[in-house]
């Protein structure tokens, strides 16, 4: 058996901001063309300059919406985007999987967004990018919920039968949760209607009347405040927060849990979601500096002995410097490794969880799941918080031409080769099975607390 190592370890920092559904919504409120009055700059001889640190979802969209906000203004803004990695996209990473002359692009992180994320959806359409609907590449996929001993729920080909099973087992909990999700999402979408900017995610949640959902853990909110069947929370709700955010209901706030339960119209960009962020920067006209590590930012009050309005000097690893009127930090400050001079930053300690994302070719081993045959076997497996599961989720992504299945596994711990061999049948007749398992260093993505 040949092992070609390649996977990703993703460290999640806990904050109130989560990818796509929030970061783009909130950035856009600041830089929407409807809000130009808040950012009008008196006519000046030279353009104002803005440095954006980070070319992920936040940085790329900020560059784009700044350019849109000032497109028809007498003022001009020149933007520079610094990115320490060789590509745009942040955690929207794509691995180019090539096997037997077959080339497949698979998302490592930030792999989906939903219809309700209007800025992602509308911008992709504007830029002429093609969508892939969730499940399109594997139309016969079936979901199963594994608790370490048995499947507590298995999807069938009949949605009516599935709904009947859920109601029989969990009472009206599925319907109550569905109604709650619709209600919360409708409140959340009002953020698109606001013209005024805001200063924090917490204040925006209050403005949307979602402060209750933000303040309490999902476990307390659903069980104590909404009286939802505990078994349903354990079997159906928690697996969704685990696969989406690597967090259990006692760790995630209720608003985050609602987002994980609202996958209607889930989709991705063909070729990788990072392509949208590339388009944001391309259409913004910003100067993009890839492979450029910012090491120091200094607040200045004088330049060459002449008193000026506040400006900032950005220094990169190669020693070069540039002066800007404003800085946007679109990367986690605490983990950026940037030295700040004459700038007071009050940063609280941010805890981490670690998420391993592994791609492996092979088919599910029925005996691991206490089955005797693989027919009609779930190939999208989520897990409960039973303490008996060795992974968060295991999902077949695509069937390759040679009959192998490319699987994507999320786990908190790095899984051993022995576990892979027990979960999957890795060896095929052609003896070309490949296990990808390599760790990339510290890609920061927001989790929810």
UniProtKB/TrEMBL annotation:
Residues 153-424 form the Prenylcysteine lyase domain. It holds the Pfam family Prenylcys_lyase. The keyword Nucleotide-binding does not apply. Its cofactor is FAD. It comes from Gigaspora margarita. The chain crosses the membrane at residues 12-31. GO terms for molecular function: lyase activity; prenylcysteine oxidase activity. One of its GO terms (biological process) is prenylcysteine catabolic process. Keywords: FAD, Flavoprotein, Glycoprotein, Lyase, Membrane, Oxidoreductase, Signal, Transmembrane, Transmembrane helix. It comes from the Eukaryota. The keyword Aminoacyl-tRNA synthetase does not apply. SUPFAM superfamilies: FAD/NAD(P)-binding domain. Belongs to the prenylcysteine oxidase family. This is Prenylcysteine lyase-domain-containing protein.
């Amino acid at each position: 058996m040949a092992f070609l190592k390649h996977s990703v370890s993703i460290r999640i920092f806990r904050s109130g901001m989560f990818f796509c559904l929030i970061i783009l919504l909130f950035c856009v409120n600041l830089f929407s063309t409807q809000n130009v009055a808040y950012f009008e700059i008196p006519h000046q001889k030279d353009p104002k300059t803005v440095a954006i640190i980070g070319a992920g979802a936040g940085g790329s969209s900020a560059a784009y919406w700044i350019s849109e906000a000032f497109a028809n203004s007498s003022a001009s803004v020149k933007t520079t985007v610094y990115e320490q990695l060789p590509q745009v996209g942040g955690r929207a990473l794509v691995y180019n999987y090539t096997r037997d002359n077959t080339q497949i692009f698979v998302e490592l992180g930030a792999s989906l967004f939903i219809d309700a994320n209007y800025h992602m959806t509308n911008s992709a359409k504007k830029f002429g990018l093609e969508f892939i609907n969730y499940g399109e590449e594997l139309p016969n996929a079936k979901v199963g919920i594994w608790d370490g001993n048995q499947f507590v729920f298995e999807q069938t080909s009949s949605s009516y039968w599935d709904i009947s099973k859920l109601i029989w087992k969990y009472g009206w909990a599925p319907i109550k949760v569905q109604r709650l999700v619709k209600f919360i999402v409708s409140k959340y979408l009002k953020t698109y209607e606001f013209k005024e900017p805001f200063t924090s995610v917490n204040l925006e949640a209050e403005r949307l009347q979602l402060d209750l959902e933000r303040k309490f853990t999902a476990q307390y909110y659903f069980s104590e405040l909404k009286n939802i069947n505990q078994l349903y929370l354990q079997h159906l709700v928690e697996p969704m927060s685990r696969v989406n955010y690597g967090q259990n209901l006692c760790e995630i706030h209720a608003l985050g849990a609602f987002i994980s339960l609202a996958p209607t119209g889930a989709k991705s960009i063909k070729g990788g979601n990072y392509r949208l962020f590339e388009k944001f920067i391309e259409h913004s006209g910003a100067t993009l500096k890839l492979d450029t590590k910012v090491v120091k930012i200094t607040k200045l009050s004088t330049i060459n002995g002449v008193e000026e309005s506040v400006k900032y000097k950005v220094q990169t690893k190669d020693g070069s410097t540039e002066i800007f009127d404003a800085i946007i930090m679109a990367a986690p400050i605490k983990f950026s490794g940037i030295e700040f001079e004459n700038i007071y930053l009050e940063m609280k300690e941010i805890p981490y969880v670690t998420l391993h994302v592994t791609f492996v070719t092979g088919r599910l081993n029925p005996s691991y799941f206490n089955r005797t045959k693989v027919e009609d076997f779930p190939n999208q497996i989520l897990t409960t918080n039973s303490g008996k599961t060795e992974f968060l989720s295991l999902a077949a992504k695509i069937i390759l031409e040679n009959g192998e299945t490319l699987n994507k596994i999320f786990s908190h711990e790095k899984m051993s080769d022995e576990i892979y061999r027990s979960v999957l049948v890795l060896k095929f007749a052609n003896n070309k099975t490949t296990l990808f398992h390599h760790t990339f260093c510290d890609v920061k993505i927001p989790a929810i607390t």
